[in-house]
């Protein structure tokens, strides 16, 4: 879906949530080279930014990378353009969840046994990451 000016609504929402502008990226890929979970990603971090620049909404909605991202901020520390890619990933997650109108994970999706056994820190972290 696009805005009245023809821009991707998902990308505009991501910018509003994160305060980051993907157009500041010049695609050096230092973020991807430093990412500790790159082997588990279906799109490298710099490719996610390229998709944002191009407004490829459908591909971003299907992409696993923002959900696998560990929010470790290594990419942000390495970026020569001072882009906070970890915040951008969070902005994508929020935008996708709001577009879908549903949460990915919450107490209702867990059994009482899981709620009792899983560490509180993991639960709070998961609820924060997968809920709008
Ligand atoms: S390190 Fe920064 S400028 Fe380079 S590709 Fe990643 S986000 Fe873009
Ligand atoms: S914040 Fe996410 S994308 Fe950036 S280096 Fe860490 S795991 Fe990779």
Furnish the topology, listing elements before pairings.
Blueprint: H1 9-18, H2 30-34, H3 45-54, H4 57-62, H5 65-68, H6 74-78, H7 85-100, H8 112-117, H9 120-130
Helix pairs in contact: 1-7
The structure holds iron/sulfur cluster (2 copies).
The site of one iron/sulfur cluster has 15 residues, from α2 and α3.
Outline the structure in words.
The chain has two domains: 93 residues, Alpha-helical ferredoxin (Fumarate Reductase Iron-sulfur Protein, Chain B, domain 2, Orthogonal Bundle), CATH 1.10.1060; 28 residues, no CATH class. The chain has nine helices and no strands. The radius of gyration is 15 Å and the shape is globular. It is mainly α and 132 residues long. The model has no long low-confidence stretch (mean pLDDT 88). Helix 1 packs across helix 7. One iron/sulfur cluster binds next to helix 6 and helix 7.
Radius of gyration: 15 Å
**CATH fourth-tier homologous superfamily of the largest domain:** Alpha-helical ferredoxin
Number of discrete domains: 2
Share of residues in strands: under 5%
In brief, what are we looking at here?
The chain has helices spanning 9-18, 30-34, 45-54, 57-62, 65-68, 74-78, 85-100, 112-117, 120-130. The chain has 132 residues and is mainly alpha-helical.
Tags for this model:
Fumarate Reductase Iron-sulfur Protein, Chain B, domain 2, binds iron/sulfur cluster, mainly alpha, about 130 residues
């Amino acid at each position: 879906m696009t805005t009245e000016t023809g821009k991707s609504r998902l990308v505009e929402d991501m910018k509003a949530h994160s305060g980051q502008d993907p157009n500041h990226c010049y695609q050096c890929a230092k973020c991807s080279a430093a990412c500790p979970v790159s082997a588990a990603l279906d799109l490298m971090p710099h490719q996610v930014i390229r998709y944002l620049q191009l407004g490829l909404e459908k591909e971003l909605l299907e992409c696993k990378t923002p959900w696998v991202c560990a929010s470790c901020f290594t990419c942000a520390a390495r970026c020569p353009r001072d882009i906070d890619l970890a915040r951008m990933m969070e902005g994508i997650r929020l935008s996708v969840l709001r577009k879908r109108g549903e949460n990915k994970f919450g107490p209702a999706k867990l059994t009482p046994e899981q709620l009792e056994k899983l560490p509180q820190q993991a639960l709070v972290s998961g609820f924060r990451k997968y809920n709008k």
